[in-house]
Automatic annotation (TrEMBL):
GO terms for cellular component: plasma membrane. A divalent metal cation binds at residues 5, 53. ATP binds at residues 5, 53, 71-72. GO terms for biological process: phosphatidic acid biosynthetic process. It comes from the Bacteria. The active site is at residue 46. The lineage of its organism: Bacteria, Pseudomonadati, Pseudomonadota, Alphaproteobacteria, Hyphomicrobiales. Its cofactor is Mg(2+). It comes from Brucella thiophenivorans. This is Diacylglycerol kinase. It is found in: Cell inner membrane. The keyword Magnesium applies. It catalyses: a 1,2-diacyl-sn-glycerol + ATP = a 1,2-diacyl-sn-glycero-3-phosphate + ADP + H(+).
Length: 99
């Protein structure tokens, strides 16, 4: 799947880059787990979104309001997971290095 889905590829690269960065800057193992876990959660949601989109495309390539709603909900879930990951990273960086 990562071979064909650009978003999943990008998030896997993000995860691989985040591992050493989180290891170096996390003040504790808990912070490290939260930082890397938030990226893994983002990847999980993206994979589920890809599955939703593939299923919808298999049902029909024509426009259907219900299919559009399903795809939009999947995209919204990815956005929320992205905001969550950014919030976790931002909070840990802010409380560790700026306070």
């Amino acid at each position: 799947m990562a071979k064909h889905e650009k978003a999943v590829q990008q998030e896997l690269v993000l995860f691989l880059l985040s591992l050493p960065i989180a290891f170096l800057i996390a003040p504790s193992w808990l912070a490290f787990l939260l930082m890397t876990g938030s990226i893994l959660f983002l990847i999980l949601v993206e994979v589920l979104n890809t599955g939703i989109e593939a299923t919808c495309d298999a049902v029909s390539r024509d426009f259907h309001k219900e299919i559009q709603i399903a795809k939009d909900c999947g995209s919204l879930a990815v956005l929320i997971a992205s905001i969550f990951a950014a919030t976790v990273w931002g909070y840990i960086l802010f409380t560790t290095y700026l306070i």
